[in-house]
What we know:
The structure holds two protein chains of two kinds.
Chain A: H1 2-21, H2 28-44, H3 49-62, H4 73-85, H5 93-103, H6 131-145, H7 150-160, H8 163-175, H9 191-212, H10 217-231, H11 234-254, H12 257-264, H13 275-284, H14 310-316, H15 326-337, H16 343-359, H17 369-387, H18 392-407, H19 414-445, E1 452-457, H20 461-472, E2 477-483, H21 489-499, E3 504-508, H22 512-515, E4 521-525, E5 528-530, E6 535-538, H23 541-550, E7 555-558, E8 564-565, H24 582-585, E9 605-608, E10 612-615, E11 622-625, E12 628-630, H25 635-648
Parallel strand pairs in A: 1-2, 1-4, 2-3, 4-7, 5-8, 7-11
Antiparallel strand pairs in A: 5-6, 6-10, 11-12
Helix pairs in contact in A: 1-3, 1-8, 1-11, 1-25, 2-3, 2-6, 2-9, 3-4, 3-9, 3-11, 5-8, 5-11, 6-10, 6-11, 7-9, 7-10, 7-11, 8-11, 8-18, 10-11, 15-16, 15-17, 16-18, 16-19, 17-18, 18-19, 19-20
Chain B: H1 2-16, H2 23-40, H3 48-66, H4 71-105, H5 112-133, H6 139-143, H7 147-160, H8 163-200, H9 202-205, E1 211-215, H10 219-230, E2 236-240, H11 247-257, E3 261-265, H12 270-274, E4 279-283, E5 286-287, E6 293-296, H13 299-308, E7 313-316, H14 330-333, E8 362-364, E9 369-372, E10 379-382, E11 385-387, H15 392-399
Parallel strand pairs in B: 1-2, 1-4, 2-3, 4-7, 7-10
Antiparallel strand pairs in B: 5-6, 6-9, 10-11
Amino acid sequence: xxxxxxxxxxxxxxxxxxxxxxxxxxxxxxxxxxxxxxxxxxxxxxxxxxxxxxxxxxxxxxxxxxxxxxxxxxxxxxxxxxxxxxxxxxxxxxxxxxxxxxxxxxxxxxxxxxxxxxxxxxxxxxxxxxxxxxxxxxxxxxxxxxxxxxxxxxxxxxxxxxxxxxxxxxxxxxxxxxxxxxxxxxxxxxxxxxxxxxxxxxxxxxxxxxxxxxxxxxxxxxxxxxxxxxxxxxxxxxxxxxxxxxxxxxxxxxxxxxxxxxxxxxxxxxxxxxxxxxxxxxxxxxxxxxxxxxxxxxxxxxxxxxxxxxxxxxxxxxxxxxxxxxxxxxxxxxxxxxxxxxxxxxxxxxxxxxxxxxxxxxxxxxxxxxxxxxxxxxxxxxxxxxxxxxxxxxxxxxxxxxxxxxxxxxxxxxxxxxxxxxxxxxxxxxxxxxxxxxxxxxxxxxxxxxxxxxxxxxxxxxxxxxxxxxxxxxxxxxxxxxxxxxxxxxxxxxxxxxxxxxxxxxxxxxxxxxxxxxxxxxxxxxxxxxxxxxxxxxxxxxxxxxxxxxxxxxxxxxxxxxxxxxxxxxxxxxxxxxxxxxxxxxxxxxxxxxxxxxxxxxxxxxxxxxxxxxxxxxxxxxxxxxxxxxxxxxxxxxxxxxxxxxxxx
Amino acid sequence: xxxxxxxxxxxxxxxxxxxxxxxxxxxxxxxxxxxxxxxxxxxxxxxxxxxxxxxxxxxxxxxxxxxxxxxxxxxxxxxxxxxxxxxxxxxxxxxxxxxxxxxxxxxxxxxxxxxxxxxxxxxxxxxxxxxxxxxxxxxxxxxxxxxxxxxxxxxxxxxxxxxxxxxxxxxxxxxxxxxxxxxxxxxxxxxxxxxxxxxxxxxxxxxxxxxxxxxxxxxxxxxxxxxxxxxxxxxxxxxxxxxxxxxxxxxxxxxxxxxxxxxxxxxxxxxxxxxxxxxxxxxxxxxxxxxxxxxxxxxxxxxxxxxxxxxxxxxxxxxxxxxxxxxxxxxxxxxxxxxxxxxxxxxxxxxxxxxxxxxxxxxxxxxxxxxxxxxxxxxxxxxxxxxxxxxxxxxxxxxxxxxxxxx
Lengths: 649, 407
């Protein structure tokens, strides 16, 4: 079962890609032969080549398990059909990767490690799909002959690739524009064949593991490829890349699923009551934090620092922080001072800073772009975390960026790689954030009717867009803006809504049960939606949702799918973010409220400024995402089916 | 007499302007005012109780009209009326008992018809009195002897009797007023002492290391928590700040001054924190006859959250907060909207409001109270002990007579 599943995951993303690239080929006929050939090979012979062939079939066959999203349907079915009938169009995932490699001639690539190979291949190899089989054989031979054993290759990929990687490898190729060609080779294997192949793969893998463990991941792959090349200049190299990729993919699919699983699970967060780790973290920290003296006992596991102390310190250090890119630095300061807040805004600011970083990046001598840049980004991220803990959406975005970097084909020149990265990031911003919001607006507006009284809490950007759009559509409705201390973000929303001529009522969260009588719908934003359906959002959202459900008012949560996360949470205590405690003792604009002045350092008095809370899924009627409107119980499905894909975009 | 009038007028003014805050303070002022009304009231020889009742009712109506939302005023007026009725009744029964003895003594006079008539009469009156002191306002008590009717035979008999009895009577009149004032004093004492009475029970409800959530600023809650603290219980208190009025800050300040571990949280964090709270304790503004509670704004939210997490929701209420009325749409009818300036500064949004076009409009809602339905309340702690919400109607019947429910 496992082996089946994994491949599926792998395949998925590619399938989606297909939508864009369908142009590829009718060459299935020509490819078939190739396939047949490879299969036998794989079954009988070496570990490396077989994987390739197997991947796609098994992947496709798995699909029964998953619930395909409506639009994917067509693409899903295709591969299956292809497998069965041999008529397959370019759809199958595996085919893509192949094609890329083949067609894309790229003189520069010689040194590239297997995964990046797609760019590298000289056209010469391409002649016809049918010719490939031969090539494949050759390459295999070459690989074997080369100093690095084939098994070495596989291990490498195992070791290196984080769950996503293998997929990316294939996905990447897809991206590169060149999808033209030949590929649907493998589809047509019969079941028996497939099984044989799988078996072989498994065996190979086991072997690989046995001997391969120590080879350093990246290097081994590249070594392998280079060595192969040495043996056979042009074509072999292509093959080789394929092989490497294939190996990677297979790994993924067949075996190490458990390992992958483990990696799949979100990393445990830093727990701030673990002293040794805190000390370590401090040593690395750029931002000097003073620990708050008066910490809230229940929240020792969260960072509790004095606020307001870091800013001047950091500003002073501006010119000494040479490793820090100014754009990142600026964003960090903005987080620190609270100039940028709100999930989307923070995420976009960060991504744009990373774009700058990429633009100004130059690979240091003796270093590899992928790895060095990943390290750089990591250091920036930890700086940003020091400024303000990451939101879940930012975590997802960072994962995406790192993924993209890791998947950059080595064959790309530095400038090309940078351009590719920048456009990837740009696309993430446009598709996953801005585009998603548009889709959400389109969905949500259908739920607003004339005469509605809509309640919203805080100032969620998605909801604001919905309200403004509904107003443009001349729907007649009234908005209740509920606000809470200390941020009073609702006032900003209120101002913007009123300027547009929407009738509003403003109140504070305590009055929620007074006002709930007249409400017909509640629209809420979310910082994240967790896979148990819990909505993690601005503190107070849970109160609003609870009261609304007590009054039988439907609660609609608007959240872009990139904010979904596979983590689960039952309460708001275990992970949260603490704001500035002084914001609570001082009431802005109300000098008459000064009861707590002078008590801020009293050991008996703490201030707890929670930033988020977790709304249980039973209070939520519907979650509106860019994939449509779903009940909270469907969140895990979206997380499972789309998360990988969006990391691969 | 005129100074009573002016006192009443002054108090009505204060109520209207909401100068007096907190149901305890209001209740105390009301009783004291009523006490002076009673003491200044000239009582006719006949039917003194009725005269007193009328006077108190008249003043009470003014007071209630001045601030209908402050239910404590009405409660206290009803309590005073109840005291008058009770005292009157007990005097009557005592007098009847005295007459009985008298009749028994001159039984040897052959005035038999009288002798027989009186005891029979008084027996009926005593029975009626006994019934009306059994508080539940049953239909029977309402139909049969009311205290007024009970006085009738007495006066008639005294009129018919010798002058020794009239002297007796004048002393009785004085005694009624005296007794009533005595009773009212007791009520004052009870109101001012309810904190201690309630606080005494704290130790039974708070255990070591407990985490307690409270909101609003209530003296009863403060005393309750401090009483437990004095008994060497150590526990921590979360105080929700109670947004537009920030009374939570006030409470936190006092708690800290008394050495309690206090954490101030925003109102929005109530739901987030409730899962780590062992008990929610709030002070009520008023308790309705169905067991519903009127409390500071935001209480309903806390009660719902507590219910969701099965955290006991405990309401502290002195007996002057028990209101014999059943609420109808209390969120609106028993509420009060305060100034929007507590939420938004005056004129802050005038720049974006386009009054000419009349398209967009802005309302600001700032209610003072919140209603918690009885099914969300786990326990009431009053000065007479702990009670279930479903028992409140009965408890209330102890304090008020059925005649006064509608004033």
